[in-house]
């Protein structure tokens, strides 16, 4: 088989993996700071997808352009969720948080089912069938846009946490909650901000994903699980790790599917997850707790 | 030597006795629908009880218990279909497979000091890994499903687990009470106290010389073996198995709801939780239908909201609260010993 | 009321003429009917005016999409069948795509008076319902579910008016040969892409078993299975392309069909045709909406509604009235089989004259329905409860519409094979 087949498959996996990575990044940020495992993460992402599809369908706005608005919407959802509900669960054990978010997820998925029906919907973009040719590579235009978009958003988020005062405060809060309180930070507000940011990131990932995938409510649990695998592989709480994990999962699934059997490809993701958990439980780029 | 339910008050014992009698009498007065619903309730009570051994007693969160259900189901069904071995013989292979799987996950997880959320995800990963693997095992039907021949619905052949709904009802009822008795014994055994010590503070338990690794491993293995028995029941009750359904994450989530809602770490919590949840689901369906809301999905919304409400307002579970208010268990101070089973 | 009474009497002699109201008549005949039941069935004396049909479908959960499409068939049946002289009352239930729920919902339906159950789209949920129906002696008419085991497991109350996966694939492959013969073009190699779920794997098994017996013009296709939940089929299509096959055979679910064709366009993979031996996907409304011109010329060989059947046209008309903004063709398959399943039950009831399950079961075994929607001979059930007379049609997409191109007798247009390249479309 000629080499360019492999290259194409790997490149496609890489670009898709970046979008997965962005979604996982949102999850990672939330966990890193609030210490809540957001089991409704895929659901937030799918809300973002529906918002993008609605914008594209009724207003003709490209999902890439709709992303900032969707991000604001999801930020509000996340902020509200944290303030109203999740905040009181911060010190509760894992399984209680889990059941709470399972309940929230159930409400979201079925709300979407009632609102939008079970048929899958797509955002029609004029470049949906285009491909970009770079040397031996034939890359989907949609995948290139989505992958580059994911990188850009991840970079913005990174800069926010490094440079802005709020970002620094959130990081302080993550490093030492008590300390943050002592120096007078409003921890509850920072938590809500973080959850909002995580949700907004998931929302943007959803917008980008609509370029690649048709949306239906039942996608949500799949994305939740996928985000988890990625985050654990990359390192829960590590931003670079989430992106790296996404890319790794993207490429390894693509290659496993290509070389072995596509229907067994997610077995490799789980295999990778198990390996990482055993050999490096803090994840590839995570810090030892 | 303690009696079986000595932390119950007199009133509690009467209530339990009445409850058991009522359950025994169900097939004599209930219609098919009710028997079906209560069979489902008892199934969730049983596997919830099994999960509770690992989480409630030893504090190890598993979100992949569907793995053990599936292994038990497939092992016994394969023996029955391919070799004509009845379920009560097949049960042993199912339990062996599940115990082994539990031992592997436990060994790996505990040896590498994986805890909390990470351990929970490890259990999910193993369950999902197995699901996809079973999708590709042609001998067991793969993703196309594995089908058992249908038995005589009117008959009652408890040896081959073929027969009427009443037969299945009594089998799962016996399993539920058996599990309750077993858990009660476990809790008040040496290993039970080790578990509680580990659950409350693993480092302290280690410090006083408890072999933490071994104790946790035993919890996982017992829990897995018990759960696999629920799988055997499932296989013969439904007569068909699909990896997609039996190993699904959704099932793992479903089966931890009862103990969490009922009260983790308590003996009656899983049973009580199951008796709240399944009827709640039926009630919501009924309510939605009588309100004329013909919207697929609306039921799950109410169900989800109910779950949220319960975990928000009754974080320790519903059973401890009910038991306290109805004075079914001794109040703190009544009786200094045997507090373990029902934490207030 | 008049309409009801006129249509209800199986003898055709309206009791209205006797001056009695329907209720009085019913009371008067009750004793006679009961006596008659002892001595054998008495179709002349209707004990039940209306058949209560429990329709069990996955209307939420991961099968919500086809489940809700099937539900439309039930809605149409509720409107249309009484007008045609088949008084029915539909009790609906949602399985939530979960066999546990399917089981308890079936119990509930029977509890609420359902005399026959119709459902349940998916093999797993159908067997869950079959358990209950078997225990209660209530007939189950399967609308859609293709696992061969369903009618092989030993249920005595199950009736399936849907092909088994082996019949489906056998008919599908035979039609491919017809297609090659009709167009005079034959591909030299093929590749088989299928979702690795119940349906896909059953198709794969059927293909493996049947292929050697069919003397197809190409070697057994290499099979590439993919996860039915996959969100991206780029790899799968790349792999198929790498085989250099001239014909792409697919067994898809719904969204995967879109993903496959979209990837083929992007990867510039130009086979002679994309053919499905009977799976959903390429005639779904969504397929046309998303793919537009690229949806054209894809072929599905599947049981299809006979465009020349009077009943199919009536159902189409009712669909238009009920769902004016949607296209019949996009839902016709799910609607057709769900409607026919309810019709089968209603017809048996009409002949039996009673909803008594034992009598109804007997009447179902005697079913011989030629007024139907889908292609194939009259609906009859063998001793296992399987209808073996369901034929497939070769349906090709033209101008965003599924169009029957084979068999010749019912064809609405001529087949186009090989299809024009992706880039050559206007």
Write the layout of secondary structure elements.
The complex is a heterotrimer of chains A (289), B (344) and C (426).
Chain A: H1 3-34, H2 41-59, H3 63-84, H4 94-116, E1 131-134, E2 137-140, H5 141-163, H6 165-175, H7 177-182, H8 187-209, H9 219-234, H10 239-259, H11 265-279
Antiparallel strand pairs in A: 1-2
Chain B: H1 10-29, H2 32-57, H3 66-83, H4 87-111, H5 116-135, E1 146-147, E2 156-157, E3 162-163, H6 165-187, H7 190-200, H8 202-207, H9 212-238, E4 240-241, H10 243-246, H11 249-262, H12 269-290, H13 298-313, H14 318-325
Antiparallel strand pairs in B: 1-4, 2-3
Helix pairs in contact in B: 2-6, 2-9, 2-11, 2-12, 3-4, 3-9, 4-9, 6-9, 7-9, 11-12, 12-13
Chain C: H1 2-8, H2 22-38, E1 51-57, H3 64-83, E2 88-94, H4 99-111, E3 116-119, H5 123-136, E4 140-142, E5 158-160, H6 165-183, E6 190-195, H7 198-210, E7 222-226, H8 234-242, E8 247-251, H9 255-266, E9 273-276, H10 285-291, E10 299-302, H11 310-322, H12 328-352, H13 357-365, E11 393-398, E12 401-406
Parallel strand pairs in C: 1-2, 1-3, 3-4, 4-5, 6-7, 6-8, 8-9, 9-10
Antiparallel strand pairs in C: 10-11, 11-12
Helix pairs in contact in C: 3-11, 3-12, 4-5, 6-7, 8-9, 9-10, 12-13
Descriptive key words:
heterotrimer; A: 289 residues; mainly alpha; two-stranded antiparallel sheet; 3% strand; globular; C: 426 residues; alpha/beta; Rossmann fold; 12 strands; 42% helix
Would you give an account of this structure?
- The complex is a heterotrimer of chains A (289), B (344) and C (426).
- Chain A is mainly α.
- Chain A has one domain.
- Helices cover 73% and strands 3% of the residues of chain A.
- A two-stranded antiparallel sheet of chain A has the order 1-2.
- In chain A, strand 1 and strand 2 form a beta hairpin.
- In chain A, helix 2 packs parallel to helix 4 and helix 2 packs across helix 8.
- Chain A is globular and about 60 Å long.
- Chain B has 344 residues and is an all-alpha fold.
- Chain B has one domain.
- In chain B, 70% of the residues lie in helices and 2% in strands.
- In chain B, helix 3 packs antiparallel against helix 4.
- With 426 residues, chain C is α/β, with parallel strands linked by helices.
- Chain C has three domains: 37 residues, no CATH class; 169 residues, Response regulator (Rossmann fold); 169 residues, Rossmann fold (3-Layer(aba) Sandwich), CATH 3.40.50.
- In chain C, 42% of the residues lie in helices and 14% in strands.
- In chain C, strand 1, helix 3 and strand 2 form a beta-alpha-beta unit.
- In chain C, helix 4 packs parallel to helix 5 and helix 9 runs parallel beside helix 10.
- The N terminus of chain C is likely disordered.
- Chains in contact: A-B, A-C, B-C.
- Chains A and B meet through helix 4, helix 9 and helix 11 of A and helix 5, helix 11 and helix 13 of B.
